[in-house]
Amino acid sequence: MSRLASAELQAPASGWRERWLSMLDRWLSSPGLYRWSLGNPIGRLIMRRRAAQLFSLMAGFVHSQVLLACVRLGWFEALLSEPRSLTQLQQMAHLPPDSVQRLLGSAISLGLIEQRGQRYGLGPLGVPVAAHAGLRAMIEHNALLNSDLVDPLQLLSRPESSGMHAYWPYPTGDAADARPIADGVDAVATPPISQAQTFSQSTQGAPQISRYSELMARSQRFLIEELLAAYDFTQHRRVLDVGGGQGGWVIALAQRVTHLQLHLFDLPGVAALARQRVAEAGLTQRISCTGGSFRSDALPEGADLITLLRVAHDHADEAVLELLTRIHQALPAGGQLLLAEPMAEPEGKPCASDAYFHFYLLAMGRGRLRTAGELSQLMRRAGFGAIRSIPNPVPLHGSLLLARKD
Asked: What fold characterizes domain 34-131?
């Protein structure tokens, strides 16, 4: 049951608080209050602030398209190397001068680009876009979600018809238990990731897996750096990463903590890609890769820590509970699970990023955004105890939960 449905069942049908809030809504929306606010300094301040917030919501789709246009023109990388003149930016764009000036003015207003005399450089929000190829890749990828959201009610009523759903093809069989093409930590803030689909033997499989894996590999650095900064991995001896994708996480961990032995588990098509990357990194003596499915295969044993990075929110509760149970079975007594993924804020603490993940996961398929409390409850049902939150410098990319097998 969703958090909203649960809260509705628990709330009384009526009461003084509900009546008071309804009366307050009518009062705040009255034309008379608006007219009064225009002549009152405090009222003007409040109204101005709320008007700006509402306009930002209304114009948000334009802002995202300005960002996408600048990415596609290559402006961020160009301005990172050196400031450019208007003429140089026009030559890069191959667009009419008036159109370039409109786009440039829009980018400046959003803090993506700034004017420096007769030249233009990166704005404060343009710097991270220029510095991270993975972020630019996800901005490009979000164009799919933008297309699905042209008619949000259509997406809500028939999510299986979304372009995002088609982009991550699901295997045949039980769609509720299926997982998209690839897995792991390799996404930014964003986007959900999971095990690769076992159709790599077909003529279509390799390009599809490669397409997804390349996108994820280019955008994996954010969460990797956050994990390495937030948790002390030196206390462990062997780590198993379930749904490890191309192996970006285990390779980075092996390079940072040199005594660790590591094991990656993912479906066969992606495990093969990971094995190749491990060999290229010269880490075959310390990292092993196993192909399999957590729905039908036992997880490799021997690790004292298992990492599960941005996998759970791809799935319904039943599938997540099954995965957590298999992880619990694979761990020795005292072994730990470190789970990292975007998490919804608890009731009463709204966060703007929740809206993005709610709709992204809907367009993807069967997953959903959960609170830390909901994930902790699933962990307890799987047999884990001593569940606690690990502070993360930038929880937008993934909040962290640590659990122990008693």
From this structure: Arc Repressor Mutant, subunit A (1.10.10)
